[in-house]
Design goal:
Oligomer: single chain
Number of helices: 12
Helix content: over 70%
Strand content: under 5%
Largest sheet: none
Length: 354
C-alpha cells in the first residue's frame, strides 16, 4: 500500500490532532465526513440521525473486518512508532468529539451535532485501522512468529469501498440532493472506485493463476465502463438538477456497488486469492489479545453511545435516560484509555522494532 502524505490528502474536518494516516489514503477512511460537508462546515440539510447510523455502520465494518478477522497484509508502510502515535492522537480526538456530542445533546443543541459526529466517524475508522496495523506488525515481525501468506487482494479495501459506495447511493436517493451534495457523493465514489481498481490491478500482478487473472481483467473492464456511465449521469444531474436526472444517476450507480460486492465475495471465497495471517509467538500473542479485546470493547461502547444519541434525537426522553448517555460516554473514554495502555505496554516489550 502507498503511504500517502497527509498534507496532500488530509480530509479531516478538524485542524487539531492531525497525524499521518495509517492507511492507504486518509480520504478512503473519511467517507462519512466527506458526505456530511467540507472542512469548514457541514451541509445545512445534514441529518444527525443519519450520521449516527452511518458512523455505526463504519464502526461495525472496522470491528468485523479488522478486529474479528486476522489480516495477512499490512495496512500501510508505517512504522510501529508512527502507529502508536496515531493511536494516541486519534483516541484523544475521538474522546473530544464524544464530549462535544454529549454536551450538545444535554443542552438540546441538535444543530451542532452533525460536525462532531462526522469527525468521530473519521477518528474511529482511522484509529481502528492503526490498531489493525499494530496487530499485524506484532503478529508477523515478533521473534518466533510464523510469516503470513499474503492474499492476492485486500478484502478490507473492498469492504470499506462497498460501504462507502452504498452510503453514496443512499445520499443520491435523498429529496434534498443538490449540486453541492452531488459533488461530495462524486468525490467519495471516485476515491473508492479508484481504490478498488488499484486493488484489482495489484491483484492481477500478484496472481500466477490464469483463471484468476482473466476474472480480474474482466472485472477491471466492468468497473471502467460502469464508472464512465455513472459519471455521465452524475454530471447531467449537476448541470440540470431535477427528478429525472437524479433518477438516472441512481440507476447508473447501482451496477458499481454490485460489481464491488461481487469482487469482495470473490476475494474472500476463492481459495487461490485468500492468504494466511501470521501466527505470533506466545508472548506477542498475549499482548495482541489484550489490544484486540480493548479495541472491541471500545467499538461496543461507542456503538451504545451512538445508539443512545439516536434515541435522544428521535424521541422525548427523561433526564434519567440522559444519564445513560453520559454513562456510555464515560465507558467509551475508559476503553480508549485502556486501548492506549495496552498498545503502550506491547511496544515497551521491544518484541518488534519501532
Amino acid at each position: 500500500h502507498k503511504h500517502t502524505n497527509t498534507n496532500k490528502h488530509n480530509c479531516s474536518m478538524s485542524d487539531d490532532n492531525r497525524v499521518s494516516p495509517v492507511t492507504d489514503s486518509r480520504k478512503q477512511s473519511s467517507f462519512v465526513s466527506m458526505l456530511v460537508g467540507t472542512t469548514a462546515d457541514v451541509f445545512p440539510s445534514s441529518d444527525p440521525v443519519q450520521i449516527c447510523s452511518e458512523t455505526l455502520r463504519a464502526a461495525h465494518l472496522c470491528a468485523e473486518s479488522l478486529l474479528l478477522r486476522s489480516r495477512d497484509l499490512p495496512m500501510s508502510k508505517s512504522t510501529l512508532s508512527l502507529c502508536h502515535d496515531t493511536v494516541v492522537a486519534l483516541s484523544k480526538a475521538a474522546s473530544s468529539h464524544m464530549k462535544t456530542i454529549n454536551n450538545a445533546v444535554l443542552s438540546d443543541s441538535n444543530t451542532s451535532i452533525p460536525k462532531p459526529l462526522a469527525e468521530l466517524a473519521e477518528s474511529l475508522v482511522l484509529l481502528i485501522e492503526a490498531v489493525a496495523d499494530i496487530i499485524y506488525q506484532f503478529g508477523s515481525k515478533s521473534l518466533g512468529a510464523t510469516a503470513p501468506t499474503p492474499s492476492v487482494m485486500d478484502s478490507y479495501v473492498l469492504s470499506r469501498a462497498r460501504l462507502a459506495i452504498s452510503l453514496c447511493i443512499e445520499h443520491l436517493e435523498e429529496s434534498t440532493l443538490n449540486k453541492d451534495r452531488m459533488m461530495s457523493v462524486l468525490s467519495v465514489m471516485a476515491t473508492h472506485l479508484e481504490a478498488v481498481k488499484e486493488a484489482n490491478t495489484q491483484a492481477m500482478k500478484r496472481t500466477k493463476d490464469k483463471r484468476i487473472s482473466l476474472q480480474l481483467k474482466a472485472t477491471n473492464k466492468g468497473l471502467t465502463g460502469s464508472t464512465a456511465a455513472f459519471v455521465v449521469s452524475a454530471k447531467s444531474f449537476a448541470a440540470r438538477p431535477c427528478v429525472s436526472t437524479q433518477r438516472h444517476a441512481i440507476q447508473f450507480s447501482k451496477p458499481l456497488v454490485a460489481l464491488v460486492d461481487a469482487l469482495l465475495t470473490f476475494s474472500v471465497s476463492e481459495e487461490l486469492v485468500i492468504g494466511k495471517p501470521p501466527v505470533p509467538d506466545a508472548m506477542a500473542g498475549s499482548h495482541l489479545k489484550s489490544i484486540e479485546a480493548a479495541a472491541l470493547s471500545l467499538v461496543s461502547a461507542v456503538s451504545l453511545f451512538l445508539k443512545t444519541v439516536k434515541i435522544t434525537l428521535t424521541q422525548s426522553v427523561s433526564p434519567e435516560y440522559l444519564d445513560t448517555l453520559s454513562k456510555y460516554h464515560t465507558a467509551a473514554n475508559i476503553h480508549l484509555a485502556e486501548l492506549r495502555d495496552c498498545v503502550e505496554k506491547a511496544i515497551k516489550t521491544d518484541l518488534v522494532p519501532l
